[in-house]
Amino acid sequence: MGNQEQYLLNDGHLIPKIGLGTFQIRGYEGVEQILTAIQSGYRLLDTSTNYDSEGAVGEAIRRSGIPRSQFFVTTKLPGKYHHFDDALKIIEESLLRMGLSYVDLYLIHWPLPKRDNYVEAWQALIEAKKRGFVRSIGVSNFEEEHLEKIIKATGVTPAVNQNEIHPYWPQENLVKTNQKYGILTEAWSPLGRGSHELEEPVIKELAVKYGKNTGQIILRWQLDRGILPIAKAVSPEHQRKNIDLFDFSLASEEIKQITALEKTDGRVDNQDPNEYEEFE
Q1: Among 7, 215, 243, 273, which residue's CB has the most CB atoms within a 10 Å radius?
Q2: Cα–Cα distance between 209 and 253 in angstroms, integer?
Q3: Residues taking part in catalysis
Q4: Where is the NADP-dependent oxidoreductase domain positioned along the sequence (predicted)?
Q5: Interval 170-225: pLDDT, tens
Q6: Measured distance CA(280)–CA(277) in Å, rounded
């Protein structure tokens, strides 16, 4: 998958160490933005049924001239389709929208524990993998109790858990939980939202030290913690910078300094996975 370094998932598949997020990237303009990212070297493309960008991702892959096998495509299950049959149908629908015969990684987008159908949703993902619709299966925004419940119910451990992780919300305990189960942690909103984290003095000092921008320092902090950041960027310059992370690494003390920026109210939109009712 290009020249990127890769992580090995617990099911034996390889995944690039950084991905392009496509939230709010859609339509023909979105196709062009994804194409520029592909040209910059991105091969992991992260979408979701709820992002309405699946079509743009599929079209960009076709227009790129690069074989499908070189890409790692992720999409996600919306909360309204957590029942078994509904989940399988919407997975098929995602494949139709993208014009692909399979996706590399399929995630349950949110656990929605108030509704408590996520075990059934996980069973549907296991079935989708058996049918060849998806190669790896995982979850997003799952806390330890949610992970324990699906693993105990099915005996199948997710390959990935995609969580909100950035300097104001580093999620040290959850990252350790994922590691305990052999689950790769992905980070959504890895730079936070807005520019506050990019302006933190410690991060600015490290940017000067390493000759990088502050966004690159934060993304490297994610990688040095064994996390895969899903970074959204629409400008070609930002796309290129966000992927240019593999010629340096942070010292352990520097990693701790960034992690220490944690805030008790650090979530970007106060989306607590135990309370959040997804896009409703």
Answers
A1: 243
A2: 14
A3: 51
A4: 17-262
A5: 999 999 999 999 999 999 999 997 789 999 999 999 999 999 999 999 999 999 99
A6: 6
